[in-house]
Amino acid sequence: MPAAPLHARLAGLRRAPDIEAPELRAWDAADRYLLETAAPFIAAAPDRPVIVVDDTHGALSLGAAALGASLVRGHSDSLIARRAIAQNAQRLGGAVVIESVALEALMTPDARLALVRLPRSLDRLDALVRHLAATAHDDLVVVAGNMVKHMTPTQNEVLRRGFAQFDVTLARGKARLLIARGPIALPPAEPARGHDPDSGLQIVALPGVFAGASLDIGTRAMLSTFDSLPPYETAIDLACGSGVLACALARNDARARVIATDVSEIAVRSAALTAEANAVRVETVLDDGLAAQPDASADLVVLNPPFHVGAAVHTGIALRLFTDAARVLRPGGELRVVWNSSLGYRPALERLVGPTRQLARTPKFTVTASRRRER
């Protein structure tokens, strides 16, 4: 496809239901470089499925379709990414079939091309490489890329372990690609397991979960305030990651209903494994914030929010999660948040939730408790 039509297709993408803002875009130079490199492979075999991994808003999936692919099979860990791809496909996709499938069902025997957005997590990349290499046809070509500032030489080594041939492209538009051929079968990646001696909690993390099988310092700061938890019948660990906070809540009150929710599938699956390792009862939910939770249904929400939207530091996700928590909390319920002190979330918490007090402060993090005001 000529450059101008491809650019027009990319320009038509929306980020919704993800955060939308003038400084945020649904595609970048790495997406375009991946598609331009993939174009001759797609043109040579348009009837073969194109595999797409961790597309964020549909640039790779819909771009591959625009280049002539009749079937795109994709897997994205993020529920928001899946929904953004589906919405963009409905608006722009035309007659192409775009399937969203589990990672375990991603590869098909007739696939010869995989387009991969390189994850920052080396553990996640290793797990993807192991899966692709173990299930691929011998002729599969993997084209993986990202912006140069998010790439490291170690990513090259991870790909080399799973493929016999490996090339690095020149940078273009501040993006670079890694191209791999000749898959080498490797055993699947295993969850990481850890133990935190201070809390006594076991931690189980699938590859790519934030902080892995250890406690990040924000979660540790939050746990330090759990000696002053209010009573709760229903508590929610929002953006749960590996589920450490949910397990601490369940251990604190075994009679309570504890829910762990995250937009990441690997986080939700990790939280279930962590709960099993600690022999506590936790419900796990893959969700966009708290969309699946009824109004005024929880007494307590705990939150260690992400402060990045893609690669950019942005408050949009945190503010959306604060708003969700305010809706789901019963009047008088509590939102307990740990946040990077430089972000200054307290005025937003006061406005969106209710009266807010500081519980703890470290050189980097602040923990606050916000009481849901009466409706």
In CATH terms, the superfamily of the largest domain is Vaccinia Virus protein VP39
Residue-averaged pLDDT, rounded?
Answer: 93
Can you tell me the CATH architecture of the largest domain?
3-Layer(aba) Sandwich
Q: Please provide the count of β strands.
A: 18
Please identify the structural class as seen in this structure. Answer: alpha/beta
- The CATH topology assignment of the largest domain is Rossmann fold
- Helix segment tally: 11
Shape: globular
> H/E element string?
HHEHEHEEHEHEEEEHEHEHEEEEHEHEE
Would you write up a description of this structure?
The chain is of the alpha/beta class and 375 residues long. The model is unreliable at 308-314 (pLDDT under 50). The strands form four sheets. Strands 3-2-1-4-5-7-6 form a seven-stranded mixed sheet. A seven-stranded mixed sheet has the order 12-11-10-13-16-18-17. It has helices at residues 3-11, 29-44, 59-66, 79-92, 122-135, 153-162, 217-223, 244-252, 265-277, 316-328, 346-352; strands at 50-53, 71-75, 97-100, 113-117, 141-147, 163-168, 175-183, 192-196, 201-205, 234-238, 257-262, 283-286, 298-303, 308-309, 312-313, 329-340, 356-361, 365-371. The protein folds into two domains: 3-183, Vaccinia Virus protein VP39 (Rossmann fold), CATH 3.40.50.150; 192-371, 3-Layer(aba) Sandwich (Rossmann fold). Helices cover 32% and strands 27% of the residues. It is globular, with a radius of gyration of 22 Å. β11 (257-262), α9 (265-277) and β12 form a beta-alpha-beta unit. The protein has eleven helices and 18 strands.
